[in-house]
Write a structure and sequence with these properties.
alpha+beta, two-stranded antiparallel sheet, 2 helices, 20% helix
Length: 66
């Protein structure tokens, strides 16, 4: 990220993300339910006490995705 910020040709979206304000980090995530790649229902509550990394991706985006 630091290299992208220092580069004059860094992607505009990335540059805005770096320069933008950060979200507050000290609050609880909203409860949600998702279906995993195996068709099983997973809730955020079921992962309590574990490290959780979420990535919400657009399945139809092919270039310059937000």
């Amino acid at each position: 990220m630091a290299a992208a910020q220092a580069s004059p040709v860094a992607d505009t979206i990335l540059a805005q993300a770096i320069d933008g304000s950060s979200a507050p980090l000290n609050y609880r995530a909203a409860a949600f339910t998702l279906t995993d790649q195996h068709g099983r229902v997973v809730t955020l509550a079921s992962l309590r006490g574990k490290v959780v990394l979420l990535g919400f991706l657009d399945p139809v985006c092919t270039s310059d995705c937000p």
